[in-house]
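Shape matters. As here.
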Amino acid sequence: MNSLNPEYIATELSLKILGSVQESITGIGFPGNHSGNMLCWAGSEDVLNDFDSGYVIIHHSLEHLQEQYPNLCLLSTMEKPRLVYARAFHRFFHESAEPENHVGIHRANPAINIGDYVFIGANVTIGPGTVIHSGSSILAGTQIGANCIIRNNTSLGTEGLGLEFDHQLGRYIPFPQIGRVVLEDYVDIGPHSTARRAAMGTTLIGYGSKIGSFVNIGHNCSIGKHCILTSHVCLAGSVEVGDFAFISIGTTIRNKVSITDHVVIGQGSVVTKSLSEPGTYYGHPAVKVADSENKGSRDSQ
């Protein structure tokens, strides 16, 4: 396709090419998931170190690094590389066709149980013993382990709310959400909850974890094993929760916060900083109020 020619894309997006052009661009990628003919972006030299090949959009202030990365074709911009990457995705790679429901394929599997009015997108895998209740939506690429329970009106794999303001268009455009959601075995998700697919990589819910009703799990979150998230918990993007965490009703956790193993967070708390020690935390902002290993049984709603 002409639109996937690197020179064409560079011209259309006002990019300066640094390095040799050898292959057509076939798609978009990110650190850890890219090939020599994918288009990526890097906001710093540290991120550039994650690439060994490919086409990488950079800010013009990094042009002097080109000689250090002879295997990369750098595409220089005066704008934010993240914005230009999003612009390239929507202009050249985004497919806006109505998604096809593949639920019939999974209904034919006697090892799983699927209720009425369920949508299942392409390339979804579902382990044996899993039950999906009515009204749920499982979007493309989602991986569900064995013996999971997905309760009514749950949404897995929807796009997260990552946005970039495009001054050329005078409006926000979504940042590409090309990752996936993975549920390990024995995960239970309550009604009306959602887990957003990762912008890049994986949104993960670990083995044996239990999620209550009306819970939001943002893109690129990672929830450990045997965690309990009760009703109306909201995790912003890229939150990391360790094993055996108990997060009480109405708790909000800021993006990119990390929570260690065996943490209890009290009802209605707001977590604004990473919690690096086991124990019980409470308040706005949440602070440690007691030592705890959180190894007992607990009720969740």
